[in-house]
Amino acid sequence: MITQRGIILCTNMYFFPQSITTSDPNKDLQALSLIAAHSHISGLGLDDNLQPREASQGMVGQLTARKAAGVILKMIQAGKIAGRAVLIAGPPSTGKTAIATGMAQSLGPDVPFTALAASEIFSLELSKTEALTQAFRRSIGIKIKEETELIEGEVVEIQIDRSITGGHKQGKLTIRTTDMETIYELGNKMIDGLQKEKVLAGDIISIDKASGKITKLGRSYTRARDYDAMGPNTKFVQCPEGELQKRKEVVHTVSLHEIDVINSRSQGFLALFSGDTGEIRPEVRDQINTKVAEWREEGKAEISPGVLFIDEVHMLDIECFAFINRALEDEFSPIVIMATNRGISKTRGTSYMSPHGLPADLLDRSIIIRTEPYSEEEVGQILSIRAQEEEVELDAGALALLTKIGAETSLRYAANLISVANQIAVKKRSSVVTTDCIKKAYVLFLDSGRSVQFLDEFSDQYINDDGKVKISTEVAGNVDAMDVGV
Length: 486
Ligand SMILES: Nc1ncnc2c1ncn2[C@@H]1O[C@H](COP(=O)(O)OP(=O)(O)O)[C@@H](O)[C@H]1O
Ligand SMILES: [Mg+2]
Known about the structure:
Layout: H1 4-12, H2 32-37, E1 55-56, E2 59-60, H3 63-77, E3 85-89, H4 96-106, E4 113-117, H5 120-123, H6 128-138, E5 140-162, E6 169-176, E7 181-186, H7 188-196, E8 203-208, E9 214-220, H8 227-230, E10 236-237, E11 245-255, H9 256-263, H10 271-274, H11 282-297, E12 301-305, E13 307-311, H12 318-327, E14 335-340, E15 344-346, E16 353-355, H13 360-365, E17 366-370, H14 376-389, E18 393-394, H15 396-408, H16 411-427, E19 432-433, H17 435-444, H18 448-457, E20 468-470, H19 473-476, E21 481-483
Parallel strand pairs: 3-14, 3-17, 4-13, 9-10, 13-14, 18-19
Antiparallel strand pairs: 1-2, 5-6, 5-8, 5-11, 5-12, 6-7, 8-9, 15-16, 20-21
Residues 96-97, 311, 339 line the site of magnesium ion (MG).
């Protein structure tokens, strides 16, 4: 089942747009919510010597943590380390997730990055350990080298005969290099492929012999005079020399998880699209591990350990932590980056307290990056970047007020007010958000501090833990407390 062929089957899927690369955060359902909040971030904003620039690539301040993240990044890119754990710890909205996002952006397409919010482990239809195993294996890239046979040349003529009934098609393709010319018989599938790619005489094409996949490389220079008929986007290339048939080495990166899914008999590669992979049998994984190790010895494959990012890691319980501890020692292990905003707190599933809510043994293995609260100036810069990202224009007063709000309440609350204030401005038919709009937004929507204050004052109007609520005496007559049966 797991032959080199099997892999070809899966790597061919690459020809579909971004079908199975694990580094594309858009494909991961779990990453969706992270993207919008961090879409202004395009990297860690470091220079070549790993020195953080004050504001670059959407990142502001948090210099020490960014530099530390940069060091880790360099180690990952060098492919030298695996099986390490990094913990990013700091108060809420100090840029922990932002830093992880910045790292992901800088990794490049061949290093897988998997983002996971810890609570997802409990919400999938999988056991906790299966979900974690899949997340780990998604984060390990296998670079597979394989030779493919190609036919590459300039199309001289395509001749297609349709039978009168329409069903069966037959044809001939004449194709040449500068040195030779050959005629190939065409079947239905090839004819469809040529038509789909809109291949014409004068195109330089390449046909993968194993899959029949046709790729248009461009127009032949000899046809350059037809330029007017081609449009401005036509790419001109030389007619190939030598043999029509060539061998080429291609390198594909797939994740271990993808190989698992493709080879688990019950699922098949279609599961990669539906995301509905179910549990994968341990025997399948064992077989794959053995095979990959073999390929590696034979020089056919290279392992590239990627990154598994577990956000809000304190949501995991002691069983998950034990699993991670063991998985980090595995032969194929990614770098695990965790983020938490907890101080000394209880580890889920136990009754004891520990720093960051992580058990001591895992903490012991981890190197810790600390994030710190932002200065008012930094808050202002981040908010101004966010406004640009949301295409909202703030006037100077509005930005100053928003910055003050951000510094006194929270960065997230202030960032949320940007779009709300913009709506208020739009309603007033103004294209610029003014101080007034920010004030209105501030009154309309409470931050958590004011909400708590409000709750303290009016706690008896809300349903309490016992399901009791006090209804105002005017409405409910002399009923003082009513049981709403929660
Ligand atoms: N240093 C920074 N530079 C730019 N934007 C930042 C920075 N730190 C945080 N942000 C932005 O502020 C918001 C909250 O940060 P986030 O990373 O989600 O906080 P945390 O994960 O620490 O709770 C996000 O929109 C994030 O992109
Ligand atoms: Mg976060």
